[in-house]
Amino acid sequence: MTRLGTKSLKRSLLAASFGILGAGALVLSAQAATSGSANESLLQMQKNPNDWVMPTGTYNNWRYSTLDQINSKNVKNLQVAWTMSTGTDRGLEGQPIVIGDMMYYETSYPNYVYAVNLNHPDQIAWKYTPPRDSNAPPVACCDVVNRGPAYGDGMIFVDALDARLYALNAKTGKVVWSADNGHPKDGQTMTGAPMVVGNNVIVGIAGGEYGVRGYITAYNIHTGKMVWRGYSEGPSKDTLIDPATTINGATGKPVGPHSSIKTWKGDEWKVGGGTTWGWYSYDPKLNLIYYGSGNPGTWNPSQRPGKNRWSMTIWARNPETGKVKWVYQMTPHDGWDYDGVNEMVLVNVKYHGKEVPALVHFDRNGFSYVMNRENGSPIAIHKYDPSVNWATGINPKTNEPIVDPAKMTEAGKDVKDICPSSQGDKDEQPVSYDPKTGLFYAPLNHLCMSYQAFNVKYKAGFPFVGAIVNMIPGPGGYRGRFIAYNPMTGKTEWQIHDMFQDWGGALTTAGNVAFYGTLKGMFRAVDIKTGKILYQFKTPSGIIGNPITYMHDGKQYVAVLSGVGGWAAIGMADNLHKSSAGLGAVGLNATLTDYTNLGGTLMVFSLPSKVASAN
Ligand SMILES: O=C(O)c1cc(C(=O)O)c2c(n1)C(=O)C(=O)c1cc(C(=O)O)[nH]c1-2
Ligand SMILES: [Ca+2]
Is residue 556 in some structural domain? Predict the structure, then answer.
């Protein structure tokens, strides 16, 4: 890639402002290739299929394993190898990581961190219980979930719900350092999984339903000092991009370009949302990290005229400085709560006869995006659920959605039959990419809604939602789907319908199997080519966690956390059928309670020894 100096940077900013770049994203700057770091080992470690070294498996977010001992022929013989109670009863949305003989995982609040030696998994190697700030659970919008620990340089990094980040010694579980990343009293929480890149650990913030101004922060893995922090929006006079909004952790000074196009009125950016609670990916060659920002505050669009940049946006930043390379807003002036935080899966695609570095993103708004990940220009955008009706398509000139005015929400109006619902056609549940088939295996929601927006007043630490949403099953009457999908063509190759939202993530393997779990608690192995269910096992609770696989002592294992919760099932936990932010769980769980119960179990599956060696 080319390096841009200050001059060309200015030029590209100018070009962006005048739309010379044409359709697509705004290119801000370019960065030199990654420099050496003490922690380059993760780049190597992720190549070892015996381990699962980071929450997403690999930096490209494929959630794919080259292991094939368990395969479509023998997976019917799968059995439970061992289990472990998590000692918690709230939604388990993360996944374990496996480094050599050790497995580490984190529970939802209270955020226990467990280390298990795989040579004797009947024993807990260490357990860390972080201090708890009781102000945190009441401000977690959508259950008190956590999406798992990350590893780097002999340390385990964990987000705690009360917005503290911990670095633990991987051998002992002792705290090396901890950092204050936000304050529950202001509505800030942390539910995500950190990502370690080089010498930085990168973490997000949650609280979009509390008017939290979103930011992403990098801390030095050795010192715990803030290296940079990038906000999603900033002062109205320079809100277009990276608006005074990326700051150097040491100097407090702004990093990167400024612009002067207003997309927020007055001080509204201060409570503008755009939080960063999803998954992160990293391209070492381009030296860029990718992630999305969430809903603008409030959910009531009448209260925040303008495009509300940069909520609902895909971001590409330099991991060392935080500098923004490009942004692309998927849902300008959101009126449906379509948080843009879902994962970016990094793949190369054939486009106009060339191999192009791309990212693939299944947005909550029901569109799948294939974007050039070098410069943010769109390659292919399709509806991945044909029932999507809030927009008829994407304007090829502006690359903005063509909104159906009948589905636009506003204060005082009850807008009916909007598809998808606020839970989106996909929420946090991550997809998997299988390089053999070139297809994406996606656990999805299938819901529509009515949306009544109303005016709300901001008060720190109190819900800043401003809408009542009622969700109903989508066309066909089912609420979840698991699909094999080609984002270049928008074609669904096969699909499985599920009674409830498929809120757990997917895993694919070289054994031609896709794994995922259902809210009812079924852990499934599916034939990647046909969608045929080859194996299923009813786990103790519902599944909203993400399966992983690893090899230990020559044997392949598949692990998943069973523990129902998340926004899809939050009513089961508080019995109020609504979350702490007042978000209705829409009676969806009224019948889920007929199938499963709260509870937390780590489930580990393998083949019986004879089957494993016969194949
Ligand atoms: O705007 C935010 O800050 C924020 C945070 C979270 C979260 O931290 O889990 C969710 C959401 N929004 C959200 O919109 C949403 O649908 C959602 C579902 C879930 C879940 O874990 O099931 N969390 C969240
Ligand atoms: Ca949100």
Answer: yes
Q: Which ligand is nearest to the CA of 142?
A: 1
Kindly state whether residue 46 falls inside one of the protein's structural domains.
no
427 is catalytic: no
Q: 381 lies in which domain range?
A: 74-604
Q: Please report whether residue 11 resides in a domain.
A: no
Active-site pick, 337, 339, 363, 427: 337
Task: Give distance in angstroms: CA of 208 to centre of ligand 2.
Answer: 5
ipTM of the complex: 0.99
What would the mean pLDDT of 215-229 be, rounded to a whole number? 96
CATH of the domain at 529: 2.140.10.10
**What global pTM score does this model have?**
0.91
- Cα 586 to Cα 546: distance, rounded to the nearest angstrom: 24
The dihedral of CA 442, 204, 523, 119: what is its sign? positive
How many Å apart are CA 75 and CA 611, to the nearest integer? 9
How sure is the predictor about 262, in pLDDT bands with cuts at 50, 70 and 90?
A: low
Answer whether residue 249 shows pLDDT above 90: no
Q: 494, 441 in Cβ contact below 8 A? A: no
Give mean pLDDT, residues 171-181: 98
Q: Domain count of the chain?
A: 1
Query: Does a structural domain hold residue 344?
Result: yes
CB within 6 Å of ligand 1 — which residues? 93, 141-143, 145, 191, 206-209, 275, 277, 294-295, 339, 423, 427-428, 566-567
Q: Is 93 annotated as a binding residue?
A: yes
The reply to whether 275 sits in an annotated binding site is yes
